[in-house]
Structure formats: C-alpha cells, structure tokens
C-alpha cells in the first residue's frame, strides 16, 4: 500500500471520528420507570442530562428510599440502552453496514 492511500485512509478515519464525536454529543435518549414517576435523559456519551422525579413518586414510595433509588436506576439504565441503540444505528449507517463490534473483537 502506498503512503498516499494510507494518508487518505487516515484522513477518512479522522473525519469519521469527528462525526462520531458530534453524534455522541447531540444524541439524546429518554426513558421512564415506575409508570412515568422517574424520567432520565442521557446523551450519546451516557452522561445524565436530566433527571425528573414526579412529586407523587415520593408519596408512592412512602419513605421507601430503596424503591425510589431502584426507579431512578432503572430509568437511567434504560435511557443508556436507548442511547446505545441510537448510536449503533447511526454508526451502522456511517460504516456502510459493517458491524464495528465484530471489527473490534
């Protein structure tokens, strides 16, 4: 492989990485638990952007802090899974259908 082809491939890889970083920052996913008592929103980097706890969740938990913690955890985890699904769909399109997971082992 000649150097110009290698440089071209490296440039394309850099461009794809920049696109991916932008996509991670702008992708958001939201999920609820407890029938909407707790709602979490995360970005593509799985950073928690917003956590909303319905005031009735406090009454529903009746002082059961563990139940409220479980609802929060469930909402955040589900939002993270949704963000992963969105990112996988986005990267699949960018990579022309190649499975990045298989490439990375």
TrEMBL record:
Q: Main localisation, per the record?
A: cytoplasm
Q: Where is the composition biased (Polar residues)?
A: 14-31
Show the GO MF annotations.
Answer: DNA binding
Q: Where in the cell is it found?
A: Cytoplasm, Nucleoid
Q: Which UniProt keywords apply?
A: Cytoplasm, DNA-binding
Q: Which domain of life is it from?
A: Bacteria
Q: Which InterPro entries match?
A: YbaB-like_sf (IPR036894), YbaB/EbfC (IPR004401)
A Pfam family this chain is assigned to: YbaB_DNA_bd
Its cellular-component GO annotations read: bacterial nucleoid; cytosol
Q: Where is this region: Disordered?
A: 1-38
NCBIfam families reported for this sequence: DNA_YbaB_EbfC
What's this chain's function? Answer: Binds to DNA and alters its conformation. May be involved in regulation of gene expression, nucleoid organization and DNA protection.
Q: Which family does it belong to?
A: Belongs to the YbaB/EbfC family.
Q: Which HAMAP family match?
A: DNA_YbaB_EbfC (MF_00274)
SUBUNIT field: Homodimer.
PANTHER family (UniProt xref): NUCLEOID-ASSOCIATED PROTEIN YBAB (PTHR33449:SF1)
Q: What is this protein called?
A: Nucleoid-associated protein SAMN05443244_0365
């Amino acid at each position: 492989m000649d150097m110009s082809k290698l440089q071209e491939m490296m440039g394309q890889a850099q461009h794809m990485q920049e696109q991916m970083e932008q996509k991670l920052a702008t992708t958001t996913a939201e999920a609820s638990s407890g029938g909407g008592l707790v709602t979490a929103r995360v970005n593509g980097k799985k950073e928690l952007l917003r956590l909303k706890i319905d005031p009735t969740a406090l009454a529903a938990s009746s002082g059961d802090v563990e139940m409220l913690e479980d609802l929060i955890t469930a909402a955040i985890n589900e939002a993270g899974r949704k963000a992963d699904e969105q990112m996988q769909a986005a990267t699949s399109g960018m990579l022309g259908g190649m499975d990045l997971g298989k490439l990375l082992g």
